[in-house]
């Protein structure tokens, strides 16, 4: 029997998504779990899997269309199964039309570039020289490019404004960037004009002395919206604790001596498992506020904040309290890699119950994080660093210390419970062998 595939809801606050690309076309076979399409949400570009096996009989949405959550996007059925036109029409009618402001519009190519494109090549069969004049400006509005295309272009030093996108609405795709690199057609970003008295040169720094009005990406707009909502509707309070990390740093060194590079565990992996085990003892912090009630989650799904291009994404290690340290390390590493490549899966970013934000790799001593709604708490972790410590005998020696701050929703919990949570967390971080048994 034919099955209608709908736009999935990826996150509790997702209302719509942009269908960036169809991975399978009409008439192609597909199995349940195969990638059917790529959609762009406020958070990332996500691969959407088919919920049925069969043949792609109808694609109900054009690439580049903004589609509300729950709206039909495709029909999958048997090869010889008859898909009646009323059935397909009903699916199309169920899809609310996108507002004119949100529909994809082609990017107008500057007239100067059109004239250059029409110029004959200097040699038979040679590609026309596309060298934009100094007066030519970049297309108005934000540059349309997939997250992966931006990453590849940045790594290769390619100016995306010199590439004509083949995607919907002139969107630059990974294929466009790779083709430009192979053909050598993409020119590097033009250097800013030198002033009459240029400032002293700074290695690796490009100075722009003109004001620039930037339109935030959808991800940055979503972060702004959610963080504003969190800080204005959730009464935060904070508790900071300093942990003795000598035993953990030594244990990590011993464990990694037996592991290949791609499987080595990080300090953050220890912290994530320690948080999950501690949340077992404090179910009130593993909860979400729902109206006048508090939902205490049965599962402990720890979200890990990952810095990506243009923002922040939280990947979710499910049932964290039930998994060994090495499994947590491998899962988080794999999800973080997909997040940075713009290839996260829906399950990578859904249903976290508590979050960890670690800035230790940036040599940050201490900070406070904003709660990720609808969760009740988030742990902000600073660097593990060697500092002078006073022993019980009054001697001064070097020791490993790390500060962490928990932010808690005051509607759900109070300072005393949060302080006990931080003390219980010390049991695992300061006696890390507990994390291995």
- Spatial strand arrangement across the major sheet: 9-16-15-14-12-13
Q: Give the name of the CATH superfamily of the largest domain.
A: Chloramphenicol acetyltransferase-like domain
Instruction: Report the average pLDDT across residues.
Output: 82
> In CATH terms, what is the fold-level topology of the largest domain?
Chloramphenicol Acetyltransferase
Give start-end ranges of low-pLDDT stretches: 93-140
* Proportion of strand residues: 15-25%
Number of strands: 16
Q: From the alpha-carbon coordinates, what is the Rg to the nearest angstrom?
A: 26 Å
User: Which geometry do the CA atoms define?
Assistant: globular
Q: Any guess at the CATH architecture of the largest domain? A: 2-Layer Sandwich
Q: Helix count, per DSSP? A: 9
List keywords for this structure.
437 residues, alpha+beta, OB fold (Dihydrolipoamide Acetyltransferase, E2P), Dihydrolipoamide Transferase, Chloramphenicol Acetyltransferase, four-stranded antiparallel sheet, 24% strand, globular
Can you describe what's shown?
The protein is of the alpha+beta class and 437 residues long. It folds into 3 domains: 3-94, OB fold (Dihydrolipoamide Acetyltransferase, E2P); 145-189, Dihydrolipoamide Transferase (Irregular); 219-436, Chloramphenicol acetyltransferase-like domain (Chloramphenicol Acetyltransferase, 2-Layer Sandwich), CATH 3.30.559.10. It has helices at residues 85-94, 111-118, 147-156, 174-183, 218-233, 246-256, 267-281, 325-341, 415-429; strands at 3-6, 16-22, 29-30, 35-40, 45-49, 54-59, 66-68, 72-77, 236-244, 287-290, 293-296, 302-308, 311-317, 354-358, 377-390, 396-409. The protein has a 6-stranded mixed β-sheet, with helices on both faces. The protein has a 4-stranded antiparallel β-sheet with strand order 1-8-6-3, with helices on one face. It has a 4-stranded antiparallel β-sheet with strand order 5-4-2-7, with no helix packed on it. Helix 3 (147-156) runs parallel beside helix 4 and helix 7 (267-281) packs across helix 9 (415-429). The relative contact order is 0.11.
């Amino acid at each position: 029997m034919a099955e209608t595939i709908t736009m999935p809801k990826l996150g509790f606050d997702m209302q719509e998504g942009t269908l960036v690309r169809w991975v399978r076309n009409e008439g192609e076979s597909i199995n349940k779990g195969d990638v059917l399409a790529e959609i762009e949400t406020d958070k990332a570009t996500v691969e959407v899997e088919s919920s049925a096996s069969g043949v792609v009989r109808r694609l109900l949405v054009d690439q580049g269309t903004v589609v509300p959550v729950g709206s039909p996007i495709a029909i999958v059925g048997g090869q010889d199964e008859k898909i009646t036109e009323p059935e397909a029409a009903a699916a199309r009618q169920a899809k609310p039309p996108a507002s004119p402001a949100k529909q994809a519009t082609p990017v107008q190519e500057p007239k100067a570039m059109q004239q250059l494109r029409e110029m004959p090549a200097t040699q038979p069969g040679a590609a026309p020289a596309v060298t934009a004049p100094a007066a030519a400006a970049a297309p108005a509005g934000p540059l349309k490019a997939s997250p992966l295309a931006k990453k590849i272009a940045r790594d290769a030093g390619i100016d995306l404004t010199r590439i004509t996108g083949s995607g919907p609405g002139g969107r630059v795709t990974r294929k466009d960037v790779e083709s430009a690199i192979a053909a050598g057609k993409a020119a590097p970003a033009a250097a800013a004009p030198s002033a009459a008295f240029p400032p002293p040169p700074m290695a690796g720094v490009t100075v722009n002395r003109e004001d620039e009005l930037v339109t935030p990406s959808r991800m940055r707009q979503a972060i702004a919206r959610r963080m504003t909502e969190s800080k204005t509707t959730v009464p935060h309070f904070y508790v900071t604790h300093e942990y003795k990390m000598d035993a953990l740093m030594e244990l990590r060194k011993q464990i990694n001596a037996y592991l290949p590079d791609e499987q080595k565990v990080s300090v953050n992996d220890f912290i994530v498992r320690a948080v999950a085990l501690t949340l077992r003892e404090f179910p009130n912090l593993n909860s979400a506020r729902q109206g006048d009630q508090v939902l205490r989650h049965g599962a402990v799904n720890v979200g890990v904040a990952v810095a990506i291009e243009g923002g922040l994404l939280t990947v979710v290690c499910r049932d964290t309290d039930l998994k060994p340290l090495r499994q947590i390390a491998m899962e988080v590493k794999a999800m973080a890699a997909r997040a940075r490549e713009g290839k996260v899966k829906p399950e990578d970013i859904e249903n976290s119950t508590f979050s960890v934000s670690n800035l230790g790799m940036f040599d940050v001593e201490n900070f406070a994080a904003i709660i990720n709604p609808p969760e009740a708490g988030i742990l902000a972790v600073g660097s593990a660093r060697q500092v002078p410590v006073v022993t019980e005998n009054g001697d001064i020696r070097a020791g490993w210390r790390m500060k962490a701050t928990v932010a808690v929703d005051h509607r759900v919990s109070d300072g005393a419970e949060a302080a006990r949570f931080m003390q219980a967390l010390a049991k695992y971080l300061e006696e890390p062998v507990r994390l291995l048994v």
